[in-house]
Amino acid sequence: MHVQHNNAHLPRSVQAQVARLVLQANLAYGESNSNGLTYGQRLKARRECREYLDQGLALEADNAAALGLLGRVEMDDGQLEKAHALFNASLNSQPAQAQQYANLGYWALKSERPALAEEYFLKALECDRQSAAAFCGVAHAKRLQGQFDVAYLHYRKLLQTGSHWDSVYSGMLTCAQHLQIHKADGDLAQDAIALLRKDGLPHQEIGRFVGAIIQQQYDLDNPNAEVFLDAAAEDELLILALQKTLMPNAAVEELVVMLRRAVMAEVAQTASLRDELQPLCLAIAEYADRTGYALAAEDDEERLAATVNDSIVAQFALREPQEALIGSLMISALYGALFHQSFAMQLGQWNLVDWPLAMQPMMAASYYNRGEEETIKQNFDEKAEELCLAKTDVPQAWPAWSQLAYRTETSLKSVMAQELGLSTDNLPATLRIIVCGAQSGQRAMELAQYLDDVEVIAVDESLANIAKATRMAQTLNMDNIVFWPWSIAQRFVADGHQVHWVEVGRLPSPAMTELSLAALINSASGRGAVVHMHTSMGEQTTGDKQIRRLVQEHQLQPTRTSLRQLRRMVLANKQDALVAATCCKTTTSTAWAAAATAGSAHRIRLSSRNCWPW
């Protein structure tokens, strides 16, 4: 071999010492990329890796493995030119290395040259057909070139062959958002299940993808489609989708409404909730909560739900045990938040962990989380605006999100130095970021989670968004982030506090008449700061504008009743061109968010082993 020829002049003891140093460097490099370690620990491991490599290269200057690994270290540190030279030096020392071609591929990805990256990855596969890293690189390159269907199939193959890497799941989820589903496909359903099962992914981003699969799977475009309640209760994809996403698909929404009605029908007839139906019932209850209870319900269902709530009040009066309440609470949560019911105070005698494990996610969403968020709202003057609203009309957090996007931990100063070329010598140890505008809650939490040298201030117009994000940050034990309304952010900046980075997702709404964003940025960045403006936030879709026009024309108030009227109007006029534009569009307006999930609908016949009582 070529490498043996290069090493022939070295004593065996020196060759062995170099091999040990390269092995130790590899182990240290692995630690430097471990998600289980803090950023500081990973930096320490990377320094150790560099030290081992320097020692090895001092003994053997053209060691191919050491040169290649040092190139990886340089690339991770943002030194792309040095990395490129080291990868090529490694190939000069030992040609036809799959690893170094793969490294060059990832270098090209870092350099934003995905087509060149694909060429390098294909060369790596020519050298080693079994290289999962190179095959994964091809998937990344295809995705960045907009070839989402091809990249998706690559990611699927990686999962099938056991490469269950975070980057594979994250890439597959990104591609899934761009796929069009035209027919039922068992493989796609299994893909969706795998993505929904994977913790740490922003599942809310594949709501359309999952909804389209369910639409085809149940043949919901067929007005004579027949769905069996018991079969739906055993459908893992449907249950996971209800638990983790919000699907802007009118046909799927109709399916959910019909399934809920069927459950209520059986309960009304038998006065019990079968064990087999409980997982589906809990999942629908979570989904109903995520929509802000905007799902349509017939009058007879509402009356039965009210009867169930009265029964729960009576059960509390008779001091019945907790287990006797479980079935009734599941049914009640299908139609309204438990936190809004007259018996809410009595539920407070139990902690969340006192309930059965399978029931806890529903209880958290319908009761405990809402209670925590209400407590958080009391800290802000803006809470006074909600006091005159009915409980069911209080705005709910929007957009619906529960997971943060996966990112490797780093530091803001590193980003500023490597990507912006700014000097960070005079910056303090901890930098302060203000994040405002679109998706400020999720974006701010992601920044606070993967930047280890920042304090983050997230600013939002919606008190509901502030409360939800604060609760989630507390759950994650994040102590480097706060969520404020604009009034407090303005006072903070006016008091002369220094800000080092301002991130603006969109301009404030017309409702913020007393706010000047330009003045705020000028004050916040008076002593020098980076201002990052997102100029491509396409939130005002045709559907959004149509919804807002309807609200203005009919002078609709932001109540649940008005919301349901809007949704019924959209469904009833699905052939209208303007209404069609409203279908399957998402609006970020808190009050009207769920109205935009409506679309063209078909009635379906829902079959059950039990007869309906009405």
Description:
The chain is mainly alpha-helical. The protein has three domains: 2-146, Serine Threonine Protein Phosphatase 5, Tetratricopeptide repeat; 186-395, no CATH class; 412-533, Vaccinia Virus protein VP39 (Rossmann fold, 3-Layer(aba) Sandwich), CATH 3.40.50.150. The chain has 28 helices and seven strands. It has helices spanning 2-7, 12-32, 39-59, 64-76, 80-93, 98-110, 114-127, 132-144, 148-160, 166-176, 186-197, 207-217, 229-233, 236-244, 250-270, 278-290, 299-317, 326-332, 344-347, 360-377, 412-419, 440-450, 463-475, 486-494, 517-524, 542-553, 560-572, 577-582; strands spanning 226-228, 431-436, 454-459, 481-484, 501-504, 530-533, 605-607. A five-stranded parallel β-sheet has the order 4-3-2-5-6. Strands 1-7 form a two-stranded parallel ribbon. Helix 22 (440-450) links the parallel strand 2 and strand 3 (454-459). Helix 6 packs antiparallel against helix 7 and helix 14 packs parallel to helix 16. It is globular, with a radius of gyration of 28 Å.
